[in-house]
Amino acid sequence: MTEPRHPPDWLDAQQPLAQWYASGLGQSILGDLQQRLSHCLSDIFGYQGLQIGNLSPERDMLGCAGLRRRIILDAPGRPADIHGDVLSLPIASDSMKLVLFFHTLDFCAKPHQALREADRVLTDDGQLIVIGFNPYSSFGLRHLLTGWRRREPWCGHFYSQSRVSDWLSVLDYRVLHNESLFMRPPINSHRLLWRLRRLESLQKRLGSMGGLYVLQARKQTLPMSLQRQAWLPNRAALGVSSLAHSRERVVSIEVARRLHQDKS
Question: What gap in Å lies between CA 125 and CA 251, rounded to an integer?
Fold first, then answer.
């Protein structure tokens, strides 16, 4: 898909994106999205999690996760617990069990840097959930046709699920769940979207063509102590084997010497 000539800025895109999600189309998407997130978040437990992007302040996107503390970060001037830039998170390293990217990569000039920041603040077994627009869908087609108008959300970068998965594999993440949703076309009419709700039944056959995707991945950090523990038993076993072999050789020599004395 053709991308906009100038990369979008995440800070400037937050307010227009929130206004778009307040429309009939955005509210319909949020209903499906929150239902899918409930399945992804139900097995996540920990002290605190971070949501980047507060595009729907009236909805608790992390409410289904077993977290004691849920923190929302957004651009300055937006309703949030913390204000800052996704490229330089004002969050301590190794402090988050979960990070949710709410269209973060779609409107970030440096997506690799944003992923590295998420990796920095996540714990060793933390999870990252990425929500983005699918370029291989009716949303992607509209992005291709109207992205030049510089209006959110169609002016963003629509990265494919496979591309995001490749980026995460470089950072040593394992993808746990990856699916698309919302098969209906991007039309801003709540009544018409309600009439077209049966199109969602095509999800089973055309599951990769939904307008949005939800990608869930776990950080895989192997402590060096585990590698050392795995090496030590092998080394010890090698020492025992060598010692046993040496003792057998000494016994054989002693037996041969005594047999020689008996004969003489």
Answer: 53
